[in-house]
Design a protein that fits this description.
The chain is of the alpha+beta class. 49% of the residues lie in helices and 14% in strands. It has helices spanning 7-43, 67-76, 122-126, 151-160, 227-241, 252-257, 261-295, 297-305, 310-344, 355-381, 385-389; strands spanning 54-58, 80-86, 96-97, 113-118, 130-133, 146-150, 175-177, 183-190, 205-209, 216-221, 250-251. The strands form two sheets. Strands 3, 4, 5, 6, 7, 8 and 9 form a seven-stranded mixed sheet that branches. The protein has a four-stranded antiparallel sheet with strand order 2-10-1-11.
Length: 392
């Protein structure tokens, strides 16, 4: 219903709408691509353990009290490579505290440290890598006052010690003191692994060799086994040792994927809106191309009579619209760069902004625009000039 007094003003509004529509479309396309790249970037990062062929289940009833017997039965199935218990699952470690001290630490500085009780088989079951020192002994009692820490905590201790910035193996043998005054000897340092928040770096961690009171059993299957058969054999062992409870398990890799539900939902919504925006943009461009072709009917007829080919005429009509999409690219690229850069700032571990993604979105928009306009342009170019030039 907007009334424009001049044709120039009306044309400006029509072209401005096309530019705005395609700019929005490209911002959404670029955003969709960056969200997908961010999720894949984090999924593909080294986790510090092997999440494949790994399940965990709650330790119920008598399973915790008879773990050694249960483990022997699991290994005897021929499908289980190893099994271990822990206080929490590898993806979610909930216990932490800040009352820890070590030689050289500033007593006024508080460091939040995650604490996890595990059985001696934990590192080998998870596929975690020792960077210095040793693993826990099979006899848990022999390591009751020993701990294994991660690289992040080891680097803090190394910076605070008498010999600054020492190698990680020099951290082994240091004492950690809790807020009750109990001391624990560091016997090993493991490579950092991701838990709780997959988008951030690891926080300091202490592993205690304390299988008593653990609430979860983690089972690693041998590579190449049929998972359906393996699960049935593990279920038989669990039910035999603990018949009063159902066999309920979760795959670690499936639970890992659940951490990206919000980002995947954002990506899907952005993709849907991008498709709708592109469709609406194409409708506007199609209508503008039809309007322009109708207004230039006589010009097209004269050019054709003077020898212009259908290809020349189609290129003539398409040129102006491609210029509009190019302007939309110049508007969309900096907006998308700024908006997605701000979104990525919320993540410590994030994907870089790749220039080729912007080029791909711009190329797709230009191709879509060209295909949309070409129908009207070719239709006008193939029209018989006699019809457009005849006088009433």
């Amino acid at each position: 219903g907007l009334r424009i007094k001049t044709n120039a003003g009306a044309g400006f509004v029509r072209k401005g709408l096309v530019v705005a529509q395609f700019a929005v479309s490209m911002v959404l396309m670029i955003g969709t691509g960056i969200v997908y790249q961010q999720v894949q970037h984090v999924k593909d990062r080294p986790l510090g353990y092997d999440r494949q062929n790994l399940i965990y289940l709650d330790l119920r009833g008598n399973l915790a009290d008879h773990f050694s017997a249960v483990k022997s039965d699991l290994l005897a199935t021929g499908v289980v490579e190893n099994a271990a218990t822990s206080n929490s699952t590898v993806l979610e470690l909930g216990s932490n505290g800040s009352g820890w001290a070590w030689p050289g630490k500033d007593p006024t500085r508080e460091v939040l440290i995650t604490q996890e009780g595990v059985s001696p088989e934990y590192l080998t079951t998870m596929g975690m890598q020792l960077r210095a020192g040793r693993d826990f002994y099979p006899n848990a009692a022999a390591d009751s006052n020993h701990v294994i820490i991660n690289e992040t905590l080891a680097q803090l201790i190394a910076r605070d010690g008498a010999a600054k910035n020492v190698a990680l193996d020099r951290v082994v043998g240091n004492l950690l003191t809790d807020d009750d005054g109990a001391q624990f000897n560091i016997v090993g340092v493991i490579k950092d692994f991701s838990y709780n928040n997959m988008y951030t770096n690891s926080i300091p961690l202490i592993l205690f060799c304390n299988p008593e009171g653990n609430g979860h059993l983690t089972v690693r299957f041998k590579p190449g086994v049929d998972l359906r058969t393996a699960l049935a054999k593990v279920a038989a062992v669990v039910k035999t040792n603990n018949p009063g409870y159902p066999f309920e398990y979760k795959f670690v890799d499936e639970e890992f994927d659940r951490y990206f539900r919000n980002e995947l939902l954002i990506g899907k919504l952005a993709a849907v809106f991008a498709l709708l925006a592109v469709f609406i943009s194409c409708l506007g461009l199609f209508g503008l191309a039809a309007y322009t072709a109708e207004r230039r009917t006589k010009e097209i007829g004269i050019r054709k009579v003077l020898g212009a080919s259908a290809l020349n005429l189609a290129g003539l009509l398409s040129k102006d619209f491609i210029r509009l999409v190019a302007i939309a690219c110049l508007v969309a690229f900096p907006v998308a760069w700024w908006a997605m850069g701000k979104w990525l700032e919320d993540y410590t571990y994030r994907t870089p902004l790749h220039w080729w993604l912007f080029g791909l979105a711009g190329g797709a928009a230009l191709l879509i625009a060209l295909l949309t306009v070409s129908f009207q342009a070719i239709k006008a170019a193939l029209t018989n000039p006699v019809k457009s030039l005849r006088t009433e």
